[in-house]
Amino acid sequence: MVNECTTMFFKTIESMTQNAIGNKNIKLKFEVNSNVPEKLNGDDVKLKQILMSVLLNSVENTENGFINVNIGSIVRYDVARLVIKIEDSGVGMSLDKINSILDDNMELTLDETNKLNKLDMDLKSIIKVIKLLGGSINIKSKKDEGTTFMIVLDQKCGIEQSSDFMKNVEKYSSDIFGRKRVLLVNDDKEENFKISNILGEYNIDLNVSMTGKDCIDRINNGEFYNLIIIDDELGETSALQTLNELNKNNKFKTPVIVMLKKDKEHFKKYYIDDGFKDTIQKENIEEEIKEKIDKYL
Fold it and tell me: Which of 10, 64, 117, 139 would give a disulfide with 200, using CB separation of 3.0 to 4.6 Å?
C-alpha cells in the first residue's frame, strides 16, 4: 500500500461499500482512527479483497439498519497491527454456521486460487486468505441480530523511498511476479466498482485515482503503471489535458486508454491522433476492458 496513502485507500473502500448499499435503508459509518499510519507496506490488493468481501457479505445480509466499520492500529517499531471491526445489523448467523466457517483448515482450492483477485469471495475463502497473510479473524453473531467481524492483520509501516527506487521496485514486482499495474482515473464510483470486479479475473494490481491532477502527481512522483485507463468525462482536468501533462514528463511511456460513451465513438480517430493508445466504449465496458487488457498487458 506504499503507493496509495491509507486515507485514500480506505476512502475508496468506503465509497465502494456505499455504492453497493444503493437504495437499501442502511446507514454506513466508516471510521479510520488517527493511530493508523498514513503509509503502509503490504498487499493492498488482498487487503481490499478481504474488506470488500466481508462488507459485501454484510450488505447482502442486511436490509435495514447499519453497517459500522472501525479501523485502528497498534504500532510497534516498524509494524502496524491493523485492527478492523465490521459490525452489521443483518440477519446474523447461527453458532453452527460460524463454526463451520472458522473450522475449515483446508488450503485454498484451485477454484479459490483462481478467484484470488475477486472482490466478492465467500467467507470461507476470505478466512483462508487472511490466514495466508498471517492474520486472524473472529466472528460473533446471533440470528436476526447481526454480525461482528474482527480482523487483525500486520502491515509494515511505510518508509519514504526515492521515486527512482520505488519505480525500480514496482517494475521488478511486475516482471517477476507477473502482476501488472493498472491506474484507473475516474470519478464515477459506481463505474469504478464495476471495473474493479471485471479486472478481478486478472492478476492485476489496480489503483484508482479520482482526478486527473492526482494521476499526474502519481506519475511525476515516480509511480510506475503498465496501463492507464482514463474517463473522458473527468471534472476539473479533462482526459486530454491529463494526457498532455503526462507527456511533458520525458520518462513517461505508459499507454493511456480513454473511456468514451457510445455517442462519442465517432471521435475515436481524433483521440488516437491526440496520443491516446486506444478507446473503450462504456456501453460495452466489460467486453471492451477485457479485450484491451488482453491486448496491452
Answer: 117
Strands 146-157 and 40-41: antiparallel
Pairwise CA distance, residues 225 & 23, whole Å: 35
Q: Which of 122, 142, 157 is the last residue of a domain?
A: 157
How many CA atoms within 13 Å lie on the side-chain side of 9?
A: 24
- Residue appearing with cell numbers 478481504: 50
CA distance 282 to 158: 36
User: What is the extent of the structural domain holding 273?
Assistant: 163-296
The answer to whether 247 and 228 are in contact (CB under 8 A) is no
Please check whether residue 65 lies inside any domain of the structure: yes
Residues 90-115 have pLDDT tens digits of: 999 988 888 887 776 555 555 555 55
Bridge partners (DSSP) of residue 32 are 71
In a domain, 127, yes or no: yes
Average pLDDT on 117-144 reads: 83
- Position 113: which residue type? T
Which of 200, 194, 229, 235 lies closest to 19 in space, CA to CA? 194
Domain count, the chain: 2
By DSSP bridging, strand 227-231 and strand 64-76 are unpaired
Q: Are residues 27 and 118 in the same domain?
A: yes
Mind listing the pLDDT tens digit for each residue in 205-226? 788 888 999 899 889 888 889 9
Spatial distance between the Cα atoms of 277 and 275, rounded to a whole number of angstroms: 6
Domain end marker among 129, 157, 185:
157
* Spatial CB neighbours of 276, under 8 Å, sequence gap ≥ 6: 239, 243, 256, 257, 258
Q: Has residue 1 been placed in a domain?
A: no
Closest alpha carbon to 228 in 207, 250, 213, 199: 207
**Is the C-alpha dihedral spanning 199, 204, 210, 211 positive or negative?**
negative
